[in-house]
Automatic annotation (TrEMBL):
<protein>
    <submittedName>
        <fullName>Cytochrome c oxidase subunit III</fullName>
    </submittedName>
</protein>
<feature type="transmembrane region" description="Helical">
    <location>
        <begin position="217"/>
        <end position="238"/>
    </location>
</feature>
<dbReference type="InterPro" id="IPR000298">
    <property type="entry name" value="Cyt_c_oxidase-like_su3"/>
</dbReference>
<feature type="transmembrane region" description="Helical">
    <location>
        <begin position="45"/>
        <end position="68"/>
    </location>
</feature>
<dbReference type="GO" id="GO:0004129">
    <property type="term" value="F:cytochrome-c oxidase activity"/>
</dbReference>
<feature type="transmembrane region" description="Helical">
    <location>
        <begin position="88"/>
        <end position="106"/>
    </location>
</feature>
<dbReference type="GO" id="GO:0019646">
    <property type="term" value="P:aerobic electron transport chain"/>
</dbReference>
<dbReference type="InterPro" id="IPR035973">
    <property type="entry name" value="Cyt_c_oxidase_su3-like_sf"/>
</dbReference>
<feature type="transmembrane region" description="Helical">
    <location>
        <begin position="366"/>
        <end position="391"/>
    </location>
</feature>
<keyword id="KW-0472">Membrane</keyword>
<feature type="transmembrane region" description="Helical">
    <location>
        <begin position="185"/>
        <end position="205"/>
    </location>
</feature>
<keyword id="KW-1133">Transmembrane helix</keyword>
<feature type="transmembrane region" description="Helical">
    <location>
        <begin position="118"/>
        <end position="137"/>
    </location>
</feature>
<feature type="domain" description="Heme-copper oxidase subunit III family profile">
    <location>
        <begin position="44"/>
        <end position="431"/>
    </location>
</feature>
<dbReference type="InterPro" id="IPR013833">
    <property type="entry name" value="Cyt_c_oxidase_su3_a-hlx"/>
</dbReference>
<comment type="similarity">
    <text>Belongs to the cytochrome c oxidase subunit 3 family.</text>
</comment>
<dbReference type="Pfam" id="PF00510">
    <property type="entry name" value="COX3"/>
</dbReference>
Length: 431
């Protein structure tokens, strides 16, 4: 009996040692790792594998963009006029700055600068919220104008901001959908407002109850929640002065064309009398020798003059057709401008000059919402993980040997920023 007890006790002790519950393992070192270096390297490999899958995921959308843009480059150039370059540039700068603060946070976690780490993670979160606030202005503005994917696209230059009743009567939307499209900004801001109110209540309760840890967590998170509305305000200011109206572009182009036409008309009036006199004096001489004087080398060679002479006989219909064909060929060879374009086949059956159609513009905005929407979802995921890091940073969980989670999240955040750096020129700067 004593032997069994001793064996059992030895086995239990060995099990405790194998699961890392002995006194040599720190609390932040997982039981299946032998050293902090092994734990960090394993986590680094895992995050890189995850980032590779993310790159493959976004590569499919970039390939779709390349194919559609190759097929209809005019549609992409025309529809990009509706994208506000200022808003895209502001968001690019915000994300670049957030990458700086995230990289700095990784360094602070290694040097155990806990207060600075909390401030930098909160700054990164605030930048992410500003980005979403600006993007909410972009989305709501375009939804109200009808710049939607195929099947829902209803933009009209004659009425860029239709009312909810017009969406129901003219475009066939339901009343609830029409109300959402005309008031979409309020629906987007509502969840963030609820979060801000919740964090404010949490901050007050923590302050009253004297819970220092919860108060230290809620204070920077309240600033983060309010940063979203700062982005909304910034987007409203920039969007109000950066709208693109096709009607104005067309009108300006028409006025420019009218001015040029009037200028040319005045110039023509000044020279018409002199040109008419010269043309009248030279008309008879030019008409007599027009064909022969400008004749390029003829396939008939020296026989052309004889054939033309014989063709003057009414009975030689075949020679008449031959001379007519020869003269047509000479006109084309001289680069003569055709007065009747329908008489020639240029290989073009139809040219669509308007890209503002649901079938064409809707495809562009479908790709736009797909790429930027998935990117925004990754921003939201990053916000969730950064909040987790912020709480752990307040708890001072990170030190010189254990900073892996901050480093891994930083790599993810840099990839999200890098993807936007590609999206910005591909969507906003292609014109």
């Amino acid at each position: 009996m004593a032997t069994i007890d001793s064996v059992t006790n030895t086995t239990d002790a060995h099990a405790d040692d194998s699961h890392g519950h002995d006194h040599d393992h720190p609390s932040w070192l997982a039981h299946h790792f032998d050293s902090p270096e092994q734990q960090f390297d394993s986590g680094k490999l895992g995050i890189w594998l995850f980032l590779v899958t993310e790159i493959l995921f976004f590569s499919g959308m970039f390939c779709a963009y390349a194919i559609f843009r190759m097929l209809r480059p005019d549609v992409f150039v025309g529809c990009s006029e509706f994208l506000n370059t200022k808003l895209g540039a502001i968001n690019t700068g915000v994300l670049l700055f957030s990458s700086l603060t995230m990289a700095w946070a990784v360094r602070c976690s290694q040097t155990e600068e806990h207060k600075k780490l909390v401030a930098l993670i909160a700054t990164t979160l605030s930048c992410a919220m500003v980005f979403l606030g600006v993007k909410s202005i972009e989305y709501s503005h375009k939804w109200g104008m009808g710049l939607l994917p195929p099947g829902s696209y209803f933009y009209s230059a004659a009425n860029e901001h239709p009312t909810a009743q017009q969406l129901v009567d003219i475009h066939g939307f339901s009343e609830s959908m029409a109300y959402f499209l005309t008031n979409s900004l309020y629906f987007i801001c509502a969840p963030f407002a609820l979060v801000a109110v919740g964090v404010l209540v949490w901050l007050i309760v923590a302050k009253v109850s004297g819970n220092a840890f919860q108060y230290a967590c809620a204070k920077p998170l309240l600033v983060v929640a309010l940063s979203f509305f700062g982005g909304v305000g910034l987007g409203m200011i920039l969007e109000s002065g950066g709208e693109h109206h096709d009607g104005e572009h067309v009108a300006a182009a028409g006025d420019h064309a009218d001015v040029e036409h009037d200028d040319h008309a005045h110039e023509g009036d000044d020279h018409v009398d002199a040109d008419h006199a010269v043309a009248a004096a030279d008309h008879s001489e030019a008409s007599a020798d027009e064909v022969d004087a400008t004749m390029v080398e003829s396939p008939l060679g020296d026989d052309y003059a004889a054939v033309k002479l014989l063709a003057e006989n009414e009975t030689n219909t075949g020679l008449k057709d031959l001379v007519a064909a020869e003269q047509t060929q000479q006109s084309i060879a001289k680069g003569k401008v055709l007065t009747d374009p329908s008489a020639s086949d240029m290989g073009i059956t139809a040219v669509e000059g308007d890209v503002n159609t649901p079938r064409q513009a809707g495809v562009f905005f479908g790709i736009y919402y797909c790429m930027t929407g998935v990117h925004a979802i990754h921003i939201l995921a990053g916000i969730g993980v950064l909040v987790w890091l912020l709480i752990r940073a307040v708890r001072q969980d990170f030190n010189r040997q254990y900073f892996g989670p901050v480093d891994y999240v930083g790599l993810y955040w840099h990839l999200v920023d890098l993807i936007w750096i590609y999206l910005f020129p591909l969507l906003y700067l292609i014109r």
